[in-house]
Amino acid sequence: MTELLHISHTMSLSWRYGASWYFAEFMRALRDERRILGLRCPVCRRVYLPPRPACGNCHVELREWAEVKDTGTVRAFTVVRTPIIDPATGQPRPASYGMALIQLDGADTTLNHYLAENDLSKLRLGMRVRAVWREERVGRLNDIVHFVAEDSDQ
Amino acid sequence: MRRVAVIGTGQTKHAKARDDVSQAELAREAATRALADAGITIRDVDAIVLSNMELFEGRALPEMWVGEGAGGWLKPVMKIATGGTSGTSACIAGYHQCASGLFDIVLVVGWEKHSEGATQTGMALVDPLWDRNVASGAVGNFALSISQYAAERGVTPEQAAKVAVKARRNAAKNPCAHLQMPDLTVEQVLSSRMLADPIHLLDMCPQSDGAAAIVYAAEGRAEKLCPRPAWVRAAVTRHDQPTIGDLDRRLVTMRTLRDAAREAYQRVGITDPLKQIDVAEIYEPVSYAELAWYEALGFCAEGEAGRLIDEGVTGMDGELPVNPSGGVLSANPVGASGVIRVAEAAMQVMGRAGAHQIPNVRTALATGYGVYAWSDVLILSAD
């Protein structure tokens, strides 16, 4: 039988995504003022992170900005122990690392982000955390390095 | 709306790598088997619906170059790509085409060839402004949800491992399944490599190469072509908000599945799913998800899912066998996986499931699941 062969292919591709008015404002506040902005639904009053032009529940336009704090509560957590591709770099992110869904104070949604702590026994639901910011910010969520326990001296 | 039935199904042998065939040949294998099972030829088919997540293979426009393998030459063809629900969504679209009176015979073909690309690469192409900033992948995402679900509903790693064992042991009776492990034990699942707490390697579905197809026929044709057609009694789909952190306690509430199931049950007159459904083929990419789906599908009250698996209620000989085929935990060619669920449910109703046939099936349930945000529910029955 014919030997079964493979063709390997690696491409470097680039995209240029439009942030739109609402995300541009979110990025500006993050980069220039280290502030996190959500959009509030005028009907159900939910504060959405990421900000978006419409509320999925009410299908109305969102225009009212709401300030969200960089502290919050862990609603879900894990320690990832296998290398997973980091979409920010395209390369596997070295394991182990902590991850959580964090409900930032003032938001009704949760934020998927990294935790500095990767010892499972030190993580729990309801844990209070705060963001550790980069000095150089570009207006992306990666401007936050990770979250640490709120009373940590990091 | 006309009544519509599944009159034939076909699957490939799902495997880690099918280096011997292209995607088009995979699709052709499944389509040819489904046509033979239905006792018709491609000339009898009025339209084709395809299901595939092409970004996993990085090869665009599969509806063109794979469409021919599926039999789409000079026929109306459409493709559906909605993550894990792609296959069930394609089955629902095919049902709509047939039920509407537009076409009499519709072929649905789903496939994936995960060996050609990294599934993780596909998962990395999430929203560039938001979720793409964090590396969580499918495993990390599930792990996060499970921490909430396990805490609220009290399910244990042992109970989840029992789901994984049930799947792989059932799969040993299914010649098409990818992972067949007749001797797998709970201890082996719990001692397999930890991917992301609390998910072990053997708690997670594999990545497979494979294809599946079903043939629909409208009333009038279905009875003539098939001695025991599997009639579609309900086909319901639900979508939810898009960002990972949007959904309120995802696995815990699973509102898309809950809502879709409620509507499907209403249409068919099901008030006690555990008693009225004879077999279920549900989309469980991770062991814990199956437990959560038991609750969302109303097989038991909230917090009772662990008891269901402990008592063998969903085993091959239980009151409601769940995934006698081995499920997604035993084969996951994503674009095909939803079609496999519907095909397996139909096979059970038609009495064509071979060694994994459940006796006397009249009513079967099939579900699809995609990234918590989407759910599909189909109910098939002998009448």
Q: Care to describe what's here?
A:
The complex is a heterodimer of chains A (about 150) and B (about 375). Chain A is mainly β and about 150 residues long. Chain A has one domain (about 20-150). Chain A contains one helix and ten strands, in the order H-E-E-E-E-E-E-E-E-E-E. Chain A has one helix at about 20-35, and strands at about 35-40, 45-50, 65-70, 70-80, 85, 90-95, 95-105, 110-115, 130-135, 145-150. The termini of chain A are far apart. The relative contact order of chain A is 0.17. Chain B is α/β, with parallel strands linked by helices. Chain B has one domain (about 5-120, about 205-380): Peroxisomal Thiolase, Chain A, domain 1 (3-Layer(aba) Sandwich), CATH 3.40.47.10.
How many E-type strands of chain A? Answer: 10
Identify the biggest protein-protein contact and residues per side: A-B, 41 and 44 residues
Q: What global shape of chain B is seen?
A: globular
The best one-word shape of chain A is globular
What structural class results from the helix and strand content of chain B?
Answer: alpha/beta
- Overall structural class of chain A, as computed from helix and strand content, comes to mainly beta
CATH third-tier fold name of chain B: Peroxisomal Thiolase, Chain A, domain 1
How many whole angstroms does the radius of gyration of chain B measure? 19 Å
How far apart are the termini of chain A? 62 Å
* Strand neighbour order, sheet with most strands of chain B: 3-2-4-7-1-8-11-10-9
Give the strand line-up of the largest sheet of chain A. Answer: 8-7-4-9-10
**Could you state the order of secondary-structure elements of chain B as H and E?**
EHEHHEHEHHHHEEEHEHHHEHHHHEE
CATH superfamily of chain B: Thiolase/Chalcone synthase
What is the radius of gyration of chain A? 19 Å
Number of strand segments of chain B: 11
Indicate how many domains the architecture of chain B comprises: 1
Low-confidence runs of at least 5 consecutive residues of chain A: none
